[in-house]
Specification:
The complex is a heterodimer of chains A (301) and B (262). Chain A is of the alpha/beta class and 301 residues long. Chain A folds into 2 domains: 2-222, Rossmann fold (3-Layer(aba) Sandwich), CATH 3.40.50; 226-300, YebC, transcriptional regulation domain (Alpha-Beta Plaits). Chain A contains 11 helices and 16 strands. In chain A, helix 4 (110-118) crosses helix 5. With 262 residues, chain B is mainly alpha-helical. Chain B has one domain. Chain B contains 11 helices and 2 strands, in the order H-H-H-H-H-H-H-H-H-E-E-H-H. Chain B has helices spanning 2-11, 15-37, 39-42, 50-85, 88-91, 98-134, 147-174, 179-197, 210-215, 231-253, 257-260; strands at residues 225-226, 229-230. A two-stranded antiparallel ribbon of chain B has the order 1-2. In chain B, strand 1 and strand 2 (229-230) form a beta hairpin. The chains are: A alpha/beta (301), B mainly alpha (262). Chain A binds chain B through residues 48, 51-55, 73-74, 76-77, 79, 81, 83, 85, 87-92, 96, 99-101, 103-106, 144, and chain B through 2-3, 5-6, 9-10, 12-14, 81, 85-90, 92-97, 255-256, 259.
């Protein structure tokens, strides 16, 4: 089942350029969907539209198979969300903040203790939120999102501003929620490294356009495509002539030969070929383009 | 009702509660102080009820301070809880209709205003009797206040406040910046004083004057009543209906309060 679906979603603020151009999101049930893009690419605008916080005249957003504008309350009852900095009543305690949401969402009182335990805030629950650290506020925001046991979590930059330990804690928590409770998670980030360890699917947004959408392994396939082999031999010119008969060479200079990496069998075949022709191999180096570079390439092109 | 209770939780530890208590205590204490310090001039004549003077002084002070300051500040402070904490986006992503959110806020504020009167009545009576005990010459303990008139004034004062309340309810939704509604209230107060000093007939149409007009009806405008309500109280109710409709339509049509509100 597709939980979030947008069809040619466009958006522009009054008297402004288009912020979003024809976005077609597809978030499957059970996925951890990473919504990536540099700052200002339109991630928060997309999330605000998905949650009905911005007007959408075209009615082209569907959640849980239902049109958002026609079924707003029913849809929102299944969603827990955290948008940008968490919205909290800072003059109240963490417990009181949860109590407000609990009453509005009409869930049982014991859920407060459960979510406090889940985000590890039980000991600080009676402290005023104004005295919380950013990480604690972020965790309380997450507790608020989780209090109604939602089917879908929409999180906008949930690890923004957290220290490395905080990032790891939130990651583990989200993974557990997805695996153990089957919660579908849609989370945005501007850094691939922050979320690549947990996402199953990715959508990459650049300048208001969805430039990549697919499974995480599809992105890693792109990574393999851009990997390179660098070979240094006793006779680079002769080696290049031999290799070129089977593989396309990108660069053949005096110092090295460069060609695209396909698979490890390709590396073995090249080595065998050179050895058979009595050419000494000094160096075979595989250079992987890391995912961050691919992300940057995608978003900058 | 459940959601109204959340509005009361939100108001905990805010100045809104202190404002209700301070507002209810201030005028009876101030008038008591005046009675105790100027008691020689306030000793009642034969057959006069000293409570009438005590009531008149209190209500005139109330009429002067109440609408421009208490109602306006309370409304601003109440909405500032959401504006300051940037919590509109949290509220608007909860599975509650916008009209429910709107009416919760409206009813909670009306309850706050009623609480003010509920507190004011016993405090005012207690202050009067305390002054009578301290200065027996004022004869406050020998007489009783006119309870019917007291309750009637509370009721009419409440009705007279509805116009300004609805205007500032709308302004507080529309503007994130508290200074704007407060500035408008100050301006309203100045215009009211000018109209009053100039004995202008237009005072009947000016909502910031209504509370004072209820406790001290201006003698230069018509004393015509519709039922039990003087004309200005009828206008107060009209202002209430018009501005409540305006704010309701605005609130329910907006999708992203925190980003569109100034």
């Amino acid at each position: 089942m597709i939980l979030i679906e947008t069809q040619n979603l466009d958006f522009a603020f009054e008297k402004g350029d288009a912020v979003l151009k024809s976005i077609n999101l597809n978030v499957e049930q059970g996925a951890i969907y990473g919504f990536l893009g540099p700052n200002g690419s339109g991630k928060t605008t997309t999330i605000r539209l998905i949650l009905g916080l911005l007007p959408n005249a075209k009615n082209n957003i569907r959640l849980f198979g239902q049109n958002l504008s026609d079924n707003r309350i029913n849809i929102l009852s299944k969603i827990g969300s955290l948008i940008e900095q968490p919205s909290l009543y800072e003059h109240l305690s963490g417990y009181e903040n949860l109590e407000i949401i609990r009453r509005i969402r009409n869930v049982s009182k014991n859920r407060i203790d459960k979510v406090l335990q889940l985000v590890d805030l039980k000991s600080a629950s009676q402290k005023k939120v104004v005295n919380y650290s950013l990480g604690m506020k972020q965790r309380l925001g997450l507790a608020i999102a989780l209090i109604s046991e939602p089917e879908l979590l929409v999180l906008d930059e949930p690890v923004n501003g957290l220290d490395p330990n905080g990032i790891i804690e939130i990651r583990e928590l989200l993974l557990n929620l997805n695996r153990e409770n089957g919660i579908t998670i849609f989370l945005s980030s501007h850094l691939l490294s922050e979320i690549e360890k947990i996402v199953t699917h990715l959508g990459i947004l650049s300048k208001g356009q969805l430039v990549f959408q697919g499974r995480y392994d599809e992105l890693t396939a792109l990574q393999n495509k851009s990997a390179m082999i660098y070979i240094e031999t006793s006779d680079n010119r002769k080696s290049a002539d031999l290799i070129e008969k089977k593989y396309k060479i990108i660069d053949a200079g005096n110092s090295h030969i460069q060609l695209s990496y396909q698979n490890r069998e390709q590396v073995a075949a090249i080595c065998k070929l050179l050895v058979e022709m009595n050419i000494d191999i000094y160096k075979v180096q595989l250079e992987n383009n890391d995912l961050e570079n691919i992300f940057l390439d995608i978003t900058s092109n | 009702m459940l959601s109204i209770s959340t509005e009361f939780i939100k108001s905990k530890k805010t100045f809104a509660w202190w404002l209700v208590i301070f507002g209810a205590v201030f005028m009876p204490l101030f008038v008591s102080f005046v009675f105790l310090s100027k008691w020689e001039h306030l000793v009642p004549q034969q057959g006069q009820n000293p409570w009438d003077e005590f009531a008149e002084m209190s209500w005139k002070g109330m009429g002067f301070l109440y609408t421009p300051f208490f109602v306006v500040l309370l409304t601003c402070l109440f909405f500032n809880i959401e504006h300051k904490n940037n919590t509109w986006k949290l509220i608007f992503t909860l599975p509650v209709s916008k009209s429910t959110i709107y009416f919760n806020k409206l009813f909670t504020l009306l309850i706050f205003i009623l609480l003010f009167y509920i507190l004011y009545i016993p405090i005012w009576i207690s202050c009067g009797y305390a002054v009578g005990l301290i200065k027996p010459a004022l004869q406050l303990t020998d007489h009783s206040p006119d309870y019917i008139s007291l309750l009637s004034l509370c009721f009419h004062s409440f009705i007279a406040s509805l116009g300004v309340f609805a205007i500032h309810f709308w302004l507080s939704i529309r503007f994130k910046n508290m200074i704007i509604p407060i500035g408008i209230a100050v301006l309203g107060g100045i215009i009211w004083v000018a109209l009053h000093q100039g004995r202008a007939g237009e005072i009947t149409y000016f909502p910031y004057a209504y509370n004072y007009s209820t406790v001290s009806p201006p003698d230069w405008v018509t004393s015509k009543k519709i039922g039990i309500f003087p004309l200005h109280e009828i206008f107060s109710m009209i202002y209430f209906i018009v501005f409540s409709t305006l704010s309701y339509r605005y609130f329910c049509s907006t999708t992203a309060p925190s980003s569109t509100f100034i």
